[in-house]
Amino acid sequence: MSDSADKLISTETPSQVKAGGAGRSSSGRSPILPAQTEIWIVPAVLAVVVLAGGGTPIWARALVLLVTGAWMVVRPPRETPSRWFELALLALFAIGLFASFAPVTWLKHLAWRDDLNGYGVTLPKVNATAPWLAGEAVMQFVAGVAWLYACWNIRPTHESRKLALWTLASLAAVLSALAALGNILKVKYPLALEAMNFSFFPNRNESALWYCLGGIVAFGMLIEGLHRRRPRYMLAVVVLAPCLLALVMGRSRMAMALFAGGTVAVLLVRLGRKSGKYIMGVLIPLAVVGVTFLIFFGDSDTLQRLPGFGSINSSPEFRLKIWQDTLDLAKDQPAGVGLDQFEDVFPQYRRHALTYQAVRHPDSDWIWLLGETGWAGLLAGMLAVGTLGAVLLGKDAKTSGPYRNLATICIGLFLMNTLVNVPAHRFGTWLLVPWLLAIAAPDFERPTKTLIPGFVWRAAGMALVVVGGIWLAAQSGRPWNSTLIEQRARARGDAAVAEKDGDELAAAAADGVQVRPLMWWPYFQRARAELVYQNNPDAALNDFRTARFLEPMWARVPYTEGMLWEPTNHVQAVAAWRAALERQDDAPEGLWRTIFDELHTWPDGEDYACILSRARPLYRWEFLTKQVSAKRFLPEMNDEISLDPKLARYTIAQRHDLLVRWAQLDGPAAMAYLNSHPKIVNQPWDISMTALAASGRRGEALRLARENLPPVEVPQLTLYAREDEASMLQKFKEDPKDLKVGVVLLSRQLDAGHDAAALVTLAALAKLPEPAPFVSWKYAELLSRAGRVDEAWEAFQPYLNYERQLAARPVTPPPGQAAGAQTATPVFSKGPIY
User: Fold this and answer.
1) Are 753 and 743 within 8 A, CB to CB?
2) What pLDDT score was predicted for residue 98?
């Protein structure tokens, strides 16, 4: 086609003008595939990718490369959204290549690379520490851009735009219905078992984005029907309902917020000043339905993650800490770390995002782009999005109809989501955006021709087809994909540990080091093989230290190392456990107890425990109040007071427990300390009471407790109103575990002044599992009245412990540890590290 022919404006029929035009381009060229056909082909591809785990498995990515590559070969793009957009994309591509494959000698010298050299780790001579992985990321980038250009060149008509939106909304509704059903049945999607709930993606936020955008499209079509008085558009309610249901069950706050904002945007953009009545007549009922769905179908975790419903620490603060660490990474490596290298390099810059969990990405497409391509890549990406926005909202879009506007709103919501999530890095969500762009694109009088020649697009397409085929073939076990090699190496390593095969374990570790030299697990497994099977402790020690360096947060790494050292070298075991106790874990109390249980079997274990417990106040409190011997407690407590006279590093509840233990063993010393620091605990009378009891003055201790604790009365039950004391006594003898009968009998005995009989009843009630607080209170009262002071004190202990638990403050978690991660009985698995 000649340039002059390309400039001609095609002649449209009156019906085409009335419908909104024949298409975006007026070059007169007929597409190879009719636009109507593509309306079905593209959603079919999207459905397959979403159902294939959101495009996360390697075979699913391979399918995307094959389809996109074939499209480029058959139909290379001829148009681009704008010249600046294309230049920005080309710049971003070049920047990504430079960040990945530039020689390290061209870039800033990095201290952590020198540290790894000291451990004997050989890194590539290019900036990317895993070049193979970076090369695969380049191919995925090419596939994503090629799909964008392919969709941009479809040129849908007015009617096909409408059909495309209905098809998209229907697809989202089907996916939403399946997700809602899966959540109701409490099952998970087979290709996303790691997700918190039923989700087609491993990350529930990406599935929720589909429900959100599908719901917005359905809502837009509903408003269009109301505005034009077209009853058939009311079918949008059927499409909207499952999207809304899946959304409230999806546990994604951002998706819910985007849906709420998107509905308002649809009304304002479509109706303008007339939107007021629709806000009252549509949005308010929709909000009521949404809240109803949330209450009846949203689980407790969903409710607690929303402001005003719960108190669980939410993720925004932690996300900001990840961003802060990523900014430090970008300052140290302004050119970026290379494509798909963030997960490997980020541990070297973690200073604020303290948690036991690995950080695979920074929860933001833009921050991720900054980390991997540097400041230049971030600017190029912003320029590309800015120029694309100018195209969608520019002069050529003035005649855009409601369907284009609806697609544009969805694109805007997607871009907002990229600020705090990573949908642009997932095929299952990214491939949706170019399709929305094709629907939203204006009809250009003079479409911009792409600078990239057709043969280059075809060459890129053939490369995508070849690479996609190689990745599919790699599923059979061939070493042609780095991710698959790593997955298989991990599985082989686990199997080798189970089978005690040192040679296979070392071989699996070597494969892991080859593809991703900054992952900690290959060095750990190699160290295990060297220590346990090859009797080479020096080499094992170096590899263990390398693993600790590469994984500086997770306590399980040095903990498991210590367990491996424990049979042969107690010094190295204790050194590893010390590192573990200074790290993060989801059950820190369980971690300490597990280590203490091992130390307790050693002849000198208490000496080591005294040293290790100083790692954190939580461990020190656990050790001093529950584990250390009485003989050793007093000198250790004196050391604590000498180092920290006000015990400021402990919580109020922890200080209370420490002083109670002190008062039990040395009442005068504890009271002298308490008198000099009267505000150190909330209930100083408890310490005084414990000291009195420890000195043998239990009667005074009991009176002090009863003066400071609220009295508890025996509940008055209306049962057995016509039964006398004798008949109730007979019933209780027949079934002494019947609490209700026992309470009624006790009330009869107390009312009659039969204290001796009441004591017998209380003794039986006290033997029941988890006796009620009033039993302990009344039992101690009657025993004290009878002069049996020692027995009264022992009987009072359950009630005293009950009140102490109520008054205790939650134990303050270690810095960076979420409060919700600690449980009443922490569980720490002693099983395999994977």
Assistant:
1) no
2) 97
pLDDT average, residue stretch 33-38: 61
pLDDT at 9: 26
Whether the CB-CB separation of 158 and 403 falls below 8 Å is answered with yes
Three-state DSSP string of 624-674: HHHHCCHHHHHHHHHHHHHHCCCCCCCCHHHHHHHHHHHHHHCHHHHHHHH
Rounded distance, CA 498 to CA 610, Å? 34
Using alpha carbons only, give the angle 211, 213, 219 rounded to the nearest 5 degrees.
100
Contact 74, 32 (CB under 8 A): yes
Angle at 517 between CA 514 and CA 518, to 5 degrees: 160
Structure tokens given for 685: 């009378």
Q: Which pLDDT score, from 0 to 100, does residue 285 have?
A: 55
Q: Output the DSSP codes for 246-286.
A: HHHHTT-HHHHHHHHHHHHHHHHHHHGGGHHHHIIIIIHHH
User: 727 by DSSP, 3-state: which?
Assistant: helix
CA–CA dist 438, 717 (Å, integer): 73
Q: In this structure, what are the phi and psi dihedrals at residue 651, rounded to the nearest 5 degrees? A: -75, 165
Q: Which residue is it, tokens 């992952």?
A: 519
Instruction: Enter the pTM of the model.
Output: 0.83
The whole-number average pLDDT for the span 233-246 is 86
CA pair distance 474, 485, nearest whole angstrom: 9
Is the sign of the CA dihedral 582, 586, 587, 591 positive or negative? Answer: negative
CA distance 563 to 558: 9
Burial readout 185-203 (b: 16 or more C-beta within 10 A, e: otherwise): eeebbebbeebebbbbbbb
Evaluate if residue 494 carries a pLDDT over 50. yes
The tokens for 535 are 């009797």
pLDDT(410) > 90: yes
Half-sphere exposure at residue 248, Cβ-oriented, CA atoms within 13 angstroms: 23
Measured CA to CA in angstroms, residue 86 lies from 80, 138, 395, 741, 791 at distances of 7, 17, 19, 84, 87
**pLDDT tens digits, 571-623:** 999 999 999 999 999 889 999 999 999 999 999 999 999 999 999 999 999 99
